[in-house]
Amino acid sequence: MSYTAFLILILIIAVALILIVMVQNPKGGGLSSSFGGGGAQSIGGVQNTNNFLDRTTWTLAIAMFALILLANFAIPRGNDNGVNIDNTINEVNTNAPTTNTTPPATNDSLQ
């Protein structure tokens, strides 16, 4: 799989995760409270809605984490474009100007 495909999947999961988290309410409201009292029991119950949203959140988070780790292996590296770092460093070192390694002369009369 290419890096672009991983990136697209990660973005889709990120948007889905945002939507699922926005639907939830930390105090037990959210989507489960909109079903009302008695009607919610016939649909599946408030508890089942909370369990579904909780499981979906964890599944999407784990899937995103796994895709991010796998995308690391699909990142195009520097060797693909023909750049060799070792040769570049050697060229810089051989083309560098030589420096004078002798210390500058001191003037004892200024002391």
Which features would summarize this protein structure in a list?
mainly alpha, about 110 residues, elongated
List the helices and strands and how they pair.
Layout: H1 3-23, H2 30-33, H3 38-43, H4 46-74, H5 85-95
Helix pairs in contact: 1-4
Instruction: Tell me the span between the first and last alpha carbons.
Output: 72 Å
**Strand-pairing-aware structural class:** mainly alpha
Count helical runs: 5
| Residue fraction in strands | under 5%
Mean pLDDT across the residues is 74
Largest sheet: none
Shape: elongated
How do the SSEs run, as a string of H and E? HHHHH
Q: Using DSSP, what is the number of strands? A: 0
Question: Could you explain how this protein is built, in words?
Answer:
Residues 88-111 are annotated as: Disordered. It is found in: Cell membrane. It is a multi-pass membrane protein. The chain crosses the membrane at residues 5-23, 57-75. This is Protein-export membrane protein SecG. With 111 residues, the protein is an all-alpha fold. It has a domain at 1-35 and 44-75. The protein contains five helices and no strands. The protein has helices at residues 3-23, 30-33, 38-43, 46-74, 85-95. α1 (3-23) packs antiparallel against α4 (46-74). The termini are far apart.
Quick structural gist:
The chain has 111 residues and is mainly α. The protein has helices at 3-23, 30-33, 38-43, 46-74, 85-95.
